[in-house]
Structure formats: C-alpha cells, structure tokens
Amino acid sequence: MHLSDKRFAALLMVPAAAFLTAFVAWPLARLVIDSFYEISPIKGGPREFVGLANYAEIFTSESFLGAAGRTIAYTAIVVTAEFVLGLATALLFSALGQRSSVLRTVFLYPLMIAPVVAGLLWRFLLIDNSGIVNHLLFRAGLLDSPNQIGWLSDPDIVLWAVAIPDIWLTTSFMTLVLFAGLQNIPGDLLEAARLDGAKAWTMLVRIIVPLLRPVIAVALIVRGIDAAKAFDIILIQTGGGPQNASQTLSLLIYQTMIRFREPGLASAMGTVYLLAMLAVATVAVWYIWRPGVDR
Amino acid sequence: MNGLETRRRGTRALLWTLLTSVIVLYGFPFVYLLLTSFKTPLATNAVPPTILPPVWTTANYGTALERSGVVASFTNSVSTATISTLLSLALAVPAAYGITRFRTRAGRIFIMAALVTRMVPPVAVGVPLMSTIAFLGLTDTPTGLAIAHTTISLPLSIWLMASFFEAVPYELEEAAKVDGCSRLVALWRVILPVVSGGMAVTAIFAFLASWNEFLFALLLTSVKAQTTPIVIANFQTQFGLDWGPMTALATLYSVPVILLTLVLQRHIVAGLTLGAVKG
Predict the structure, then answer these.
(1) For A114, which residue in chain B has the nearest alpha carbon?
(2) Does pLDDT of B22 surpass 80?
(3) B236 compared with A183, residue with greater pLDDT
(4) What is the CA radius of gyration of chain A?
(5) B97-119, pLDDT tens digit by residue?
(6) Which residues pair with A38 in a beta bridge?
(7) How many angstroms separate the CA atoms of B73 and B83, rounded?
(8) Which of residues 75-134 of A touch B (CB under 8 A)?
(9) Are B151 and A23 a contacting pair at CB < 8 A?
(10) B46 touches chain A (CB under 8 A)
(11) What's the alpha-carbon Rg for chain B, to the nearest Å?
(12) pTM of the entire predicted model
C-alpha cells in the first residue's frame, strides 16, 4: 500500500484534529446552541427555544457589562505592569551579562507555582489586620497605620490588588522572552550608538524597543490572552468581591452557571466572551505576529 | 579611559545592588509561605506578624497530611498529569511532524486552528465539556480530567513540537529513505531520537499545565479524582482560614516543581522563549 505524501501528512494529523474536535469544537458548538435556549438547571429538565432573548438580557445587564469592563481593565493592568517590570529586569540581566545567570534561574521560580497557590499566598500577604505587606510598609514609614490599605476589601482598589499575584507569577515569562530578544541585538549597534553620544533612554526608545518589536508583540499577545482568561487566581482571593468589584467575565460566567443555575444565560455570556477573545486575538495575531509567514 | 572605567564600575555595582534587591523582593513571597508553614497557629495569625517563626514546628505538615483526601489528591495530581502528558505527546508529535514535513494546505490550516484553540476561555469549554466527559462515563476520574487538561496542553505541544521538527535538517530524512526505511520507520528510528530533547521540553510544559490547573478540576471532579489545587482551595472554606496547614500543603505541592525548574532550567527557558523569539 502506498500513500501519497499529502495523505500521509493528513493521516498523521487526524488523531489530534479528532481530539480537538470532540473536546473543544463540539463543547463550544453546544455552548452556542445552548445560548438560544432557556434551560432548566435540573438534569433532563425542560428547555425552551428563546431566540436572542438571552443576548438581549446580558447586553442590558449591568453585571455583564461591568464584568466585561473589569476583564479589559484587569488585562491592561497585568500586561502593562508585566511589560514594564519585565523589560526593566531583562535590561538589568542583559547589562550584567553571563554572571547574572544564577539569579536569572532564581527569577524563574514563580512560573512553576500553581495560580491557586499564588492567589492564596498573596491573599495571606495582603490580608486585613495581620497581612505582612501592610506591616512592612508601616515599619518602613510609608503608611500611617498598618490598616490603612484594605487591599482586598476596598472596592476601589481591589482590581489592582488581585492583579498582583498574576504579575508576580508571570513577569518572569516577560523577562525571559525579552531577555532572549535582547541577546539577538548586535552589540556593535549599541556600541556605535553609545559612541555617537546617545543617552541610555534614547537608546532604549529609539533602538532597543523598535528592534524588539516582534518579540514584544508576541509576549504581549500571549500574556494578554492568558490574563483575560484569569479565573482561579481571582476566585481564590476575593471570589469576585467586594461588591463584585473584582468579578471578571470568567468568574461571572462560572457563578451564573454554578451558583445562579442559569445555563442558558451563562452560555450566551460564554459565547460573547469567546467571540470577543477570538476577534481580538485573531486581529492581534494576524497584524502583529503573523506566524507561519515565511521569514 | 580611566574615568570611564571607574564610572562603569560604579554603575555596575549599582546595577548589581538593584538586581539583588529585585530578586529578594521577588523571592520574599514564597520564602514567607515557607516560613509560615513552620509557625504555630498563634504565630500565624499574630498581629503584628513576624517574618521568622518564634517557635519552629512541623505540626502543620502533619495536620495537612492527616486530613482525609490529601494524600489521595497527590496521587490524583500525579496520575492526571502523567496521563495528560502522554496523551498530549502521542497526539502532538505525529501532528506536528505532519504539519512541518509535508507543508500541505491542511497542515497550515491545522496549526492556525491549534493557535485559535489557545484563545478559547476555559470557562466557555468547561461546562459543556462536563456532559461530554459524563457521556464517556469518565466523570470524577483522572482520565476524564486528563482529557480536559489535554485540551489546554495539546495546542501548545503542537506548536512546540512543530518548531523542533522544523530545526531537523531534511537531509537526515532523505538519507533514511535512501536506506530503504518507510516514512513511519524513518520518523520513529531517525527523527524522534533527534528531537527527543524537544519532546522533553514539551512534556515538561504539558505536565505543568495539568499539575497547576484548577477550573477543569473544579468542574470535573468531586470526591475520588480531586487534585491537590482543589484540596488546597478547600482548606479555607471548610475550616475557616486555616492558614498553617494550607501553607504546608501549598509548600509540599510547589517545592517539587520549583526544584524541577532549577534542575531543568535550560529546557524550560528553551520552551518558553522558542515560539516568541523565532516569531
């Protein structure tokens, strides 16, 4: 029996494609179908076709629009902070060269920690009353009292506070990727700019960042997608509270499904969330990253 | 010249100081977790908190491990992650090879589809996936959860393996073919040994994705197949805020993977930077 190369290649891809169809595409198709129904949460209970009613409801619901806004804000906070901190540390490592390699390894470690553990750990560090962070800030003279900041209990700042463990967990990724990118910038180029009298800041903005652009784009996209999907790290810290001030879309959909037992409504939210993610990410990937384009 | 050198030495010292303080700050949270796990309950909730335990005790570890379901959850985490890793590799290796070696239209479409899968929010897949897993009779089993975890790790595994296959010179395969090997034999005997390092990297990432996953574990397991992240999270609801045993369990769960990072550091760096820097 002889197969053409084309057939052989297809045959190799079939198992993975079948797996993704059965366990990703099919569940997603069901999600979309369910979004047009009002479904009783009881197993085998009645379901009634309601057309776009679920969509009409979520687009006028304050909790959905609020959660969507918070998801965008959370993603922006996480990605911006990680980029700034990640670039700064990558430049530090790069400036210090090979001798910093041991510290670079140490810097990697949070990447391996489960988000649940990171969330709980930071909840403990920031907890009202006995949290170590406030006490250290107080001892350093930065706070007037150790109870001055209610990181996870003040609705005005909680979205920033729940982002901290995420930033702590994955700034290493940003550093690592940017550091690898920095290694590819020819040293002659920087040396020439330095001899021409360029200041450090000018070199960063005019030479380093533009040359790193493709690497930066990929790092931002990868982290942006993950941050927008954040679930456990927030759930474990606040459960979305106080007053829903840290409730992002993942949490709202989960709670609509499991706690409020509204599968139809949750499916409509899930569908909108999914489509938004795909649209934003596809545009980003297509115009900035362009994978698969022969280089 | 001399002036420049001294200035540089001064800058260098400053940079080292800066970097060291960044590392200390970055390392502090986990060190504090570690120290808290050796504190007595009284010291854990003390106001103001102390950094070092006033009295060192390993009682929290005993309490954590004695709780029902804790030891079993470790077994579940290991078996779920192992099954998911094997499944991910078994599916990703041939698929990635098919994509990179033959450059068909289907291959290009497939690798884009795999990338799109990475963007799907788990919460959107999770709930409908519950009924698919139930249909297969795999609810609350490590295999059922491993299948769910593979939906996360498979797209990444395909991407990683595709990059590794791309680095294998085509001549190697041609030579194997000249020797009369069939395509499958050539893949198995000639190509796979060359990419074994890449397979190790892919395996590490698939394992970690499953080891640390929470949402699918929450939806798809209840009693028998619960993994440790779920058990850790449960410490706070059932017993109030039981920080001591919780930090002990979190330490036990994190230390193996942190040691893994230190040992396999070069592989991990390779995997993390691969797609990004090449792109």
Answers:
(1) B212
(2) yes
(3) A183
(4) 24
(5) 999 888 888 888 898 888 888 88
(6) A48
(7) 15
(8) 89, 92-93, 95-96, 100, 103, 105-117, 120-122, 124-125, 129-132
(9) yes
(10) yes
(11) 24
(12) 0.90
pLDDT > 80? residue B180: no
Question: Which of B20, B48, B250 is facing A120, going by the closest CB pair?
Answer: B250
- Comparing CA positions, the residue from B220, B100, B198, B106 lying closest to residue B152 is B220
User: Residue B274's closest chain A neighbor by CA?
Assistant: A177
Q: A103 to chain B: nearest residue by CA?
A: B23
Residues of A in contact with B18 (CB under 8 A): 92
What is the predicted ipTM?
0.89
The values of phi and psi at residue A76, to 5°, are -65, -45
Sequence spans of domains, chain A:
26-60+262-295, 75-246
Domains of chain B: 2-61 (no CATH), 70-278 (1.10.3720.10)
With 0-12 / 13-18 / 19 or more C-beta atoms within 10 angstroms meaning exposed / middle / buried, residue A163 is buried
Among candidate residues B166, B23, B25, the one with its CA nearest the CA of residue B99: B166
Tell me which fold the domain A75-246 belongs to. Answer: MetI-like fold (1.10.3720)
Are the beta carbons of A106 and B23 closer than 8 angstroms?
yes
Please name the member of A96, A184, A250 whose beta carbon is closest to the beta carbon of B19.
A96
